[in-house]
Every structure is written in C-alpha cells, then in structure tokens.
Amino acid sequence: SMSEYTAIRLDKIGHVAEVVLNNPEKLNAMAPIFFEEIGRVFKEIDADPEIRAVVLWAEGRLFTAGLDLKAAGQNVVGGGDNGSEGSRNFELYQLIRRWQDCFSGPELSRKPVIAAVHGHCIGGGVDLTTACDIRLCTQDATFSIHETKIAIVADVGTLQRITAIVGKGAAREMAYTGKRITADRALRWGLVNEVYPDKDSMLAAARAMAAEIAANSPLAVQGTKAVLQYSEEHSTHEGLEYVAQWNSSFLRSNDLVEAMQAFMEKRPPVFKGR
After folding, report:
1. CA 184 to centroid of chain Cα atoms
2. How many CB atoms sit inside 10 A of residue 65's CB?
3. Less CB within 10 Å around the terminal CB: N or C of the chain?
4. Confidence (pLDDT) at 177
C-alpha cells in the first residue's frame, strides 16, 4: 500500500497526520529513498480528505544529520564513465530537480504542516523544515545550513525560502558560515515560533496546535494556505484578486452554514469539510 515507508513513518490520528523521520540509528540521515518517501507521503496526505493538519518530527537523539553522504555520494560526485561530461552533468541536474520536488511536498500540500525539531537540524533538515508552514523546537535544538562546510551549495529549498523567514542578514550569516544556530537565536529571528524545554512538551504543543487547526473548517484552512502561498509570490493586488476568486468559488459551504448556526445557538461549531 502507499503507507509502506522505510525511512519515515506515517501515523494518522483522527484528523492529524504525523510524518516521523524514522531512521534513528543513522541519525535520520537522508539517503535517496528518504527524498522519494517524503515526496510520496505528502501526496498521500493531500489525497486523504480526513487529514486536516500535519506534524513533522523525528525519532532518536536528533532531528537529522542531513544528507547521507555515503548513500548519496556516488550520485553527487558521479562515478559513471559512459557518455559525455554534459550528459553526466545533466543526470545530476535531473536528480537535484527530483529531490527539490520531493522537498517542496510540505509547501505544496494543501494541509498546514508544523515541524517540531529537537537536537541538531543539519543541512537537508533546514531545507525540509523551511518548506513547512510553522516550526517549533526544543531548547537544545540547533539549525545549520551545513552545505558550505562540505563544499556544496544548498540546493533543495533552503536558499529559496530562508530569507523570507529570517531576513537577509540572518539568512546570509547562516548560509555563508554553515554554523549551528541556537534555539534562542532561531526564536529571535523568527525561524521558530516557540522554544520548549524538551521533546515531550514540544510534541504536546505541536499536537495541540495541529488539533486547533483541524477543528477549523478544512475548506477555509486550505483556502487560507493557498491564498497565503499565492500572495507571497505575487503583488498585493494580484493576491486580492486571487482571494476574491477563491471565496466566490468556495465560500458557500455547509461549514459556513454550521458556523452561523453555532454562533446563533452559542455552541462550538462541528465542521465536516463539505
């Protein structure tokens, strides 16, 4: 079935999906299979009408050590001697584009995604979590755009997304130095919304936030995400046109009727997503 994964785990609990990095023995290092499964899991979540929000977290003592250099080395450095330099380079280009598509999964998902980070979040971990809607972390968490330290330009999303999150100076400091950024700095820069004393309290908070999102009308939440995403990439006036089109297409839902009735009857609404 679609739900068979090896590098990750998909847990569905009510209206919330949890995507769990699940290779703690290897410190959740990212082998080629990991990219493929991340791409697949967000497609599965998107296709499941029961799922209204997602929490992304990791097993083991840290979030991820980043790219699995052993597993990916052959792909990245290139070993094949068939064909020209141009055709070999084109294979690497295609690989990078495939991995980029996989890591755009959280951003392109209609459902909001909350990343909950503990321990070190290195390299590809920053690519993955910057594609999420919201990031939370533990006091011991660190974030590093590690690629410059291993002679690579970060290429699966960080450099495209980080500046809008933390601002120019912070983004460049992280990207050029490759150093580890503490939870306190991450909070100050807006890389994370909140810092928690430990993993348990962070996961409890992430799940509570996901539940709060899931209690809202899923049509309205997914429309809100679509409008936010669109507006980030277009002018204010294009964004206003888009939301007018969106609401005139999708506003008249049973959930809206239920919201009005619940208000009149002074009770909490129960949304069905229809």
Report:
1. 21
2. 21
3. N
4. 98
pLDDT in tens, 57-76: 999 999 999 999 888 877 66
Instruction: Please state, in angstroms and rounded to a whole number, the distance separating the CA atoms of residues 85 and 197.
Output: 51
- What residues contact residue 242 under an 8 Å CB cut-off, 6+ apart? 227, 230, 231, 234
Backbone angles phi, psi at 211, to 5 degrees: -65, -40
Looking up tokens 């495209």 gives 160
Residue 125 CA to residue 68 CA, distance in Å, equals 12
Contact 33, 6 (CB under 8 A): yes
Query: CA-CA distance, 139 to 202, in Å (whole number)?
Result: 10
What does the pLDDT look like over 99-111, one tens digit per residue?
999 999 999 999 9
Q: What single-letter amino acid sits at 256? A: L
Residues 6+ apart with CB under 8 A from 84: none
Could you give the CA distance from residue 181 to residue 121 in angstroms, rounded to a whole number? 10
pTM here is 0.95
The token pair that represents 181 in the structure block: 């950024």
Altogether, the residues listed in the chain come to a count of 274
Structure tokens at 1: 């079935």
